[in-house]
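Query structure, 339 tokens:
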């Protein structure tokens, strides 16, 4: 270890994060060709534990889906999700009456607040070839003052997300995709209105960093109080602070110091999560996050009584047919993007 690197950890299925983040789920699946109902063939579903299939058989999982991979409708309350789909597509539907399809670099920001039902299904839209998926879902906590805000979701379309292309002194390429925060003079798109990231002085940074073989990149310093974790999830190895770190590891970093990275022989992909801690008690029970047991019991009672508005769609595994990328918001506003 060093003054900059506090801890190095091997990555698992769910990546361990630090306050104000709760965790990051990483999904990488080589889904097969899709059928007319946007799911895999019946033959490929044999010998799978449908409804709870997390074994990566044949390079992919069904998760909680029975016919279509993904997560049929389920509740959230007390925090927010940032879902980045770099490959493939996700079909969103929720209890506010909103729905959409996003992918190929798009991100969705959803503040669950006082409670929402939503589904995230992974439609296999290619019927003539495979349907690879690469998806990150980051859980960002909400402070006590914001845990009861109205739920809200927003799309960050890949055409609009800032991506900074640079070269090091040797001409090696690198790029920084800014989902939240800023890099140098470039700022991210606005998050949802009641997001923790919308508040001043929280230092919320979510970047995806790509480094060509041999590229040298210096991660600039953050705020002294901030927690920062760098996830090295794809590549060969990176040299930093006198250590050679193989892919598949995360680095807990001291917030106020820069970190020089020298990439190895393969393209490297990294994810940065950074922010000032909320420093409040966290009581988590499945998809609910509260500050105390009493508040958690209140959330559970509310869900049992109201189902957070109920499910307005015809199926738990609701998908959106052969549409391209789009978002229909709860106020009726429709945004359509090129396929």
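Result returned for the query:
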């Amino acid at each position: 270890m060093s003054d900059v690197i506090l801890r190095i950890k091997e990555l698992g299925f769910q990546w361990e994060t630090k306050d104000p983040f709760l965790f990051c789920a990483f999904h990488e699946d080589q889904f097969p060709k899709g059928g007319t109902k946007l799911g895999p063939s019946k033959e490929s579903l044999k010998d799978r534990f449908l409804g709870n299939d997390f074994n990566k058989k044949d390079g992919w999982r069904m998760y909680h889906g029975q016919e279509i991979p993904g997560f049929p409708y389920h509740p959230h309350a007390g925090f927010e999700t940032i879902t980045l789909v770099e490959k493939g597509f996700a079909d969103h539907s929720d209890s506010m009456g909103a729905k959409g399809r996003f992918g190929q670099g798009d991100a969705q920001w959803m503040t669950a607040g006082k409670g929402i039902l939503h589904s995230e299904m992974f439609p296999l839209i290619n019927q003539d070839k495979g349907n690879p998926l690469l998806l990150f879902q980051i859980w960002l906590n909400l402070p006590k003052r914001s845990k009861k805000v109205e739920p809200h979701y927003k799309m960050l379309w890949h055409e609009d997300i800032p991506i900074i292309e640079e070269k090091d002194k040797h001409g090696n390429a690198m790029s920084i995709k800014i989902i939240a925060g800023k890099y140098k003079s470039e700022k991210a798109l606005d998050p949802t209105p009641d997001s923790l990231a919308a508040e001043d002085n929280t230092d919320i940074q979510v970047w995806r960093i790509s480094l060509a073989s041999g590229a040298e990149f210096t991660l600039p310093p953050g705020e002294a109080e901030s927690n920062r974790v760098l996830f090295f999830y794809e590549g060969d190895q990176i040299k930093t602070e006198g250590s050679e770190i193989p892919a598949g590891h995360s680095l807990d970093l001291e917030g106020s110091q820069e970190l020089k990275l020298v990439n190895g022989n393969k393209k490297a992909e990294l994810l940065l999560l950074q922010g000032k801690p909320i420093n409040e008690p966290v009581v988590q029970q499945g998809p609910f996050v509260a500050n105390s047991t009493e508040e958690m019991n209140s959330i559970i009672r509310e869900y049992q009584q109201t189902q957070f508005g109920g499910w307005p769609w015809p199926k738990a595994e609701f998908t959106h047919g052969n549409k391209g990328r789009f978002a229909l918001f709860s106020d009726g506003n429709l945004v359509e993007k090129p396929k």
